[in-house]
């Protein structure tokens, strides 16, 4: 009888242990742990900026053409050749123009000979007219022939000058010091300048100085001014940031797909010759820059303690609320804007005794990531930007299926504080 009672006792104790284990591991509510995210105010630079795209171009590019038609006889430079002002680039076949010059020279000799004859005849007719040997009509005819002969000589002289000038234009010289970007002709090619001047070479003046032609949207162009700093990157060097300065904002608009853009010129140094003409640039123009100012993350002004914070910490502020589910660190952003005017806002700080209190601050520039603090904070203040909810079940590096439903607010390092991210 005693053995049966002992067995029942063992079964009862075992059942109690099992029920206690089930309750402890599966039923009891898990203690929620939270971790506050804090930062301290920093002294540094804060800026507003706009972004745009554009192309890298030389500061000055000259298209070298020809004023006469002919066949390219010889080229002396090629792509990427460095040239000096006055250097011979190419020559056209001068034979045809040379023949024209020789023909005009012969015409000039004939005109001079005719002038000499008419001058002698004019002098003779003048003497005869004085003594009354000829009529006034004969004298006027001799005078007219003499004047026409003189005009003919002047006309042929002008034709010869034109022919000689055209002959000299068969030699193509560089108008500037620079680098040949493009060569559009080859030896033996015929060029015709009857209707428009053909471009033979494109020469960049100085590749150590480049400019970026940025297309700025009409919504942003109002903040862009000459002298503002700019940075840009190119695909060839994605990890390198190039610096420049706005030198010109052109008033002529360009419209593409109903989008109005304005060309903005940014000068940049290219001493290392890394930038090449035609590269696509991703540009950031800093429209407003403040240096040596106190700043905090914008998320700090949007944080507000909710019921979880109030349960775990002592909140020393009449503005705190304890409604469940209200906020979780996502409080509505205070009265701030990006105009740079002074505004009132509030942030929450945690003291050494883990007491949370609210401080009113006066803010200035806001670039949606950082906000300027004009007054109300010290660099030693620990400002709360949000919090993380931690739990034992979700701690560790155990992988989870992305298709499994997750507890709201659970998960290791899950940023349920909300206030720690950017807007």
TrEMBL record:
Location in or out of the cell: Cell envelope
Segments forming domain Multidrug resistance protein MdtA-like alpha-helical hairpin: 102-169
Domain of life the protein comes from: Bacteria
Biased composition, class Basic residues, residue ranges: 321-333
Domain Multidrug resistance protein MdtA-like C-terminal permuted SH3 stretches: 340-386
Protein name: Secretion protein HylD
Natural source organism: Chryseobacterium vrystaatense
Residue ranges of every copy of the Multidrug resistance protein MdtA-like barrel-sandwich hybrid domain listed in the record: 61-198
Domain YknX-like beta-barrel: 210-285
InterPro entries hit by this protein: Beta-barrel_YknX (IPR058636), MdtA-like_BSH (IPR058625), MdtA-like_C (IPR058627), MdtA-like_HH (IPR058624), RND_pump_MFP (IPR006143)
Pfam families: Beta-barrel_YknX (PF25990), BSH_RND (PF25917), HH_MFP_RND (PF25876), RND-MFP_C (PF25967)
Keyword set, alphabetical order: Membrane, Transmembrane, Transmembrane helix, Transport
Family per record: Belongs to the membrane fusion protein (MFP) (TC 8.A.1) family.
Compositional bias segments (type: Polar residues): 336-345
Disordered: annotated span: 320-346, 391-423
Biased composition (Gly residues): 408-423
NCBIfam families from the UniProt entry: RND_mfp (TIGR01730)
